[in-house]
């Protein structure tokens, strides 16, 4: 399959709205090169590795790189993305230089390029993410290994939103639990839930590429018997009382999902949400309260927030 890389030179302020535009356009992966990242101080709590090369970042502003399959609709999709970005100033959003470049990327080149940057990373007390080509030996019998082979569609699983979800699952999953993973992507959270003791996990995603990737990754990690991957739009038509629902998606989607989640998770069950920029933390928390959840813990990593909420009230 041929892929194109859409590179957008913009501002930090425009990251979220442009990301939303790109996701609506059907991108299968995204990377953000923010010049501000070079100045950030990071905590090295679990041995995470942050090896940033200044040559990979713009002098100022932000470069958003998104990846699209090259198909019959490709030219129309690019034009639509450019038009929607150009309209953002109408909503008082500074888009900066707004330089958009499109280039072709071969899938085999992508796979080779990833290997330079992707190494084993311990993301919680027990979970370590390891690339499939690395020969890694666990430090203890309690360490849980998630193997991933990142391709065009997904990254390394070490983004702050993913890391916080894994840490939240480690705090909440009990042996025998039923977990629903909404917007599963690579399937990493479903794999983590299974390894942490969940008896049954349902992994949901609307993107066919994600569904296939999640199935491959669950097989790679030997949890395909406990993790069921399905193509589905959020929680539509999902039956059963989940002990935990985890959703690493956009803040606006979490807000829309909150009441349905409250009807799907058990009394005293957990709703773990992430993908929330700091500025929208209260916006999401208010929606969770309104849906009948109580906030158990708010986690913050860099500019991102995750929330562990418990359904304590009667269903709405």
How does this model look, in words?
This protein has 316 residues and is α/β, with parallel strands linked by helices. The protein folds into two domains: 2-106, Alpha-Beta Plaits; 158-311, Rossmann fold. It contains eight helices and 14 strands. β5 (121-122) and β6 (127-131) form a beta hairpin. α4 packs parallel to α5. The radius of gyration is 19 Å and the shape is globular.
Kindly provide the radius of gyration, computed on alpha-carbon positions and rounded to a whole number of angstroms. Answer: 19 Å
**Overall shape:** globular
Distance between the termini: 46 Å
Name the beta content range: 25-35%
Mean pLDDT: 85
* Uncertain segments: 36-58
CATH topology call of the largest domain: Rossmann fold
Q: Helical proportion?
A: 25-40%
CATH superfamily of the largest domain: Vaccinia Virus protein VP39
Q: What's the number of helices?
A: 8
Task: Tell me the total number of β-strands.
Answer: 14
CATH-derived architecture of the largest domain? 3-Layer(aba) Sandwich
* Largest sheet entry: 7 strands, mixed
List the secondary-structure elements in sequence, H or E.
EHEEHEHEEEHEHEHEEHEHEE
CATH classification class of the largest domain: Alpha Beta
How many domains, in number, for the residues? 2
């Amino acid at each position: 399959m041929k892929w194109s890389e859409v590179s957008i030179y913009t501002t930090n302020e425009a990251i979220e709205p442009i990301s939303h535009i790109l996701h609506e356009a059907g991108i299968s992966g995204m990377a953000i090169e923010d010049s501000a990242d070079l100045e950030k101080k990071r905590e090295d709590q679990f041995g995470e590795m942050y090896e940033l090369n200044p040559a990979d970042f713009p002098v100022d502003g932000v470069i958003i790189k998104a990846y699209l399959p090259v198909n019959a609709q490709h030219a129309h999709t690019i034009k639509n993305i450019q038009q929607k970005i150009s309209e953002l100033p109408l909503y008082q959003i500074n888009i900066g230089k707004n330089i958009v470049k499109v280039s072709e990327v071969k899938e085999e080149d992508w796979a080779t390029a990833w290997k330079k940057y992707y190494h084993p990373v311990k993301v919680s007390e027990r979970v370590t993410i390891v690339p499939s080509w690395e020969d890694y030996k666990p430090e203890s019998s309690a360490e849980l290994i998630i193997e991933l082979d990142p391709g065009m569609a997904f990254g390394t699983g070490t983004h702050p939103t993913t890391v916080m979800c894994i840490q939240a699952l480690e705090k909440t999953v009990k042996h025998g639990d039923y977990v629903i993973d909404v917007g599963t992507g690579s399937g990493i959270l479903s794999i983590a839930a299974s390894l942490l003791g969940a008896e049954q996990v349902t992994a949901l995603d609307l993107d066919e590429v994600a569904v296939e990737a999640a199935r491959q990754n669950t097989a790679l990690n030997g949890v395909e018997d406990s993790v069921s991957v399905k193509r589905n739009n959020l929680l539509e038509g999902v039956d059963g009382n989940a002990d935990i629902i985890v959703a690493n998606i956009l803040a606006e989607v979490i807000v829309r999902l909150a009441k349905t989640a409250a009807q799907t998770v058990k009394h005293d069950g957990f709703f773990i949400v992430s993908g929330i920029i700091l500025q929208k933390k209260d916006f999401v928390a208010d929606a969770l309260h309104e849906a009948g959840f109580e906030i158990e813990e708010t986690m913050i990593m860099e500019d991102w927030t995750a929330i562990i909420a418990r359904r304590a009230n009667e269903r709405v």
